[in-house]
Amino acid sequence: MTAPAPAWPLTAFKLLLPLLLLPKNAPASTEDTCTFPDSPVSSTFLQAISDLSDYMLRDYPVDVPANLQADQQCWALWHLALAKGTLERLKLVAGRKLQVPLEAVYTEVNFVSQCINQSFPSCLRFRKANISHLLLDVSSHLAALQTLITHQSFQPCQQYRCQPEPSTVSTLPSPGSLGALGNTLRPPKPSKFNLLSLGVLPILLLLILVAAWRWKQRKRHSRPSRSPKSPTPQDMQVMVL
What we know:
- The protein has helices at residues 8-21, 45-55, 75-93, 96-109, 131-148, 175-183, 192-222, 233-240; strands at 61-65, 126-130.
- The protein is mostly helical and 241 residues long.
- The longest helix has 31 residues, at 192-222.
- Pfam families: Flt3_lig (PF02947).
């Protein structure tokens, strides 16, 4: 009587069969973190910002970006992400009464953290502004995204981009442009003679006036004096009488 065959080969085959049926080189599923099927902007964000404005000093200075690239798609999302960082820093120094309205506004903008990389590029610059201006910007950006955020993917906005710095390197003109510039008329250079004449003319006029005055003085001194008149016969008779 023969012993029954062990059942482990059949069991191993059943375990390996699903692995063999998997497609080779299947791409890993990646979730688009910058797509929002449902709008994350609540309908009460205006009230939350208004409550925070009542507690904050209007002229409290905060940092706002100064040279973000003017990208129509990413502009609002970038500003909200930077405002979120400012609110985080304010929460660390705020008092107990201010924590609640700060947290409410922070919650309104917290959705940007799933898309925007919070590390700043070295080119990003900041300037000082009042907290009231920052809250107005947050309000306008949330209002702009409220209806548009579900209609597009913000995947290109994951990294901040700065405005290009003005180039300080002068570029050499092409040979064609050199020929065109060579054919144009240049304004004449000022003559050295003209420059000298402008400086000498006042001195020359002064010398002429001095010479004319001296000539008049000499003429006056060289004029002969009048001789006394000789007495007439009538004068002599009067003197005898």
